[in-house]
Structures are given as C-alpha cells and as structure tokens.
Amino acid sequence: MRVEFLAAMRRVANSVTVVTTDGPGGRQGATVSSFCSVSADPPTLLVCLNCDSRVHDAVHSNGTFCVNVLPRGLEELSHRFAGFLDEEEPDRFSNVALKPDLEGPSIIANATAFVCKTEQAVRSGSHTVFIGHVVDIHRGVDEPLIYLDGKYREIAPLEK
Ligand SMILES: Cc1cc2nc3c(=O)[nH]c(=O)nc-3n(C[C@H](O)[C@H](O)[C@H](O)COP(=O)(O)O)c2cc1C
Q1: Which pLDDT does position 96 carry in this prediction?
Q2: What is the best residue among 19, 33, 49, 123 to mutate for testing ligand 1's pocket, by most ligand atoms within 8 Å of CB?
Q3: Which pLDDT band, with edges at 50, 70 and 90, does 160 fall under?
Q4: CA 136 / ligand 1 centre spacing (Å)
Q5: How far apart are CA 53 and CA 123, in angstroms?
Q6: Which of 2, 16, 66, 79 satisfies CB 3.0 to 4.6 Å to 145 for a cystine?
Q7: Residue 102 pLDDT > 90, yes or no?
Q8: CATH, range 17-154
Q9: Which DSSP string corresponds to 74-107?
Q10: What pLDDT sits at residue 101?
C-alpha cells in the first residue's frame, strides 16, 4: 500500500513552499509541499513536517512559522531549502533575498507569505500537522511554482 500511495501522490500537483521559522528554537527553513488552507474564519492553514527534520523541532519550540509560496522561476530556492546544497552551503539562507527589517520568521522576497502562530500540532505517522493561525500576509504577484510527478512546472492557462 505504501508504494501505491507514493505513486498515486506523484499524480497530485502542489504549490512549492518554503516554511521558515525563527526564535529561541533557532532559525530554520525547509521546502514543503504539504500545505493547504483550513479556514478563512479565522484565517487558518496547515503544513505537515517530518518529525525527523530540524525545521519540525524549531517550529515546535518557536510556536511561529511562515509559509512562503514560491513564485515560478525559484526552483533553485526549492532545491536549496530541500537540503540538496547543504554540503557546499550549510546556511540555506545565505544569499537568499528576504524582505528586510521584519521581526519573526524570514519572508522570501516575491513569495506569497503567510506568517502564522502555531495553534495545534497533531502527530500523524512520520509527520506532525502544524495548524497555524495566520497573523500577517504578504501577497506576491507572480504565478506559483508547481511540483508534480517529481518535476517543477509552471501553470499554463487552458485556451478556450
Ligand atoms: C518538492 C519538495 C516538497 C517537500 N515537501 C515536504 C513536506 O511537505 N514536508 C516535509 O517534512 N518535507 C518535505 N520535503 C523535504 C524537506 O524539504 C527536506 O527533508 C528538508 O531538507 C528538511 O530539512 P531539515 O531537516 O534541515 O529541517 C520536500 C522536499 C521537496 C523537494
């Protein structure tokens, strides 16, 4: 069933986000595609983080995180925050364009960003579902980067 599950999930398209966090538990960031809206009243969203990841533990202790929905063209950033460049560049935030002069979790320039306070953390299998109350929003203009079947993609409108 696990193999079938993973194969079927490759058929599901997701926006690519970078979840960042900062505070007493440290600054961390990781690429995350398990993101969705939960409720508009009050504004609430969720992300699922692997319990073995550093970002998981940091979000847990900091009680705050930001979901940065990457615009198209930033697949290199997704690659970086998934850890593929960690050996050559251990600081994932190095040379990343961030919105300046803001307190709290880092906000990536040009991303659509949702700053959250953790409302609930629910363990399920290998992951924890972090449900966040949205306290600040930065709206980007570019269309989002999409991940489907192991590849990055851009959205193309249907011609009528
Ligand atoms: C496209 C893509 C989507 C990912 N989505 C998730 C996700 O939803 N949840 C998760 O825990 N890890 C996800 N990952 C894996 C993390 O980005 C990766 O494990 C990360 O390096 C964790 O870093 P850390 O241990 O330093 O916190 C994804 C990776 C990629 C490339």
Answers
A1: 96
A2: 33
A3: confident
A4: 23
A5: 14
A6: 16
A7: no
A8: 2.30.110.10
A9: -HHHHHHHTTTTTTT-S-TTTT--B-SS--SS--
A10: 76
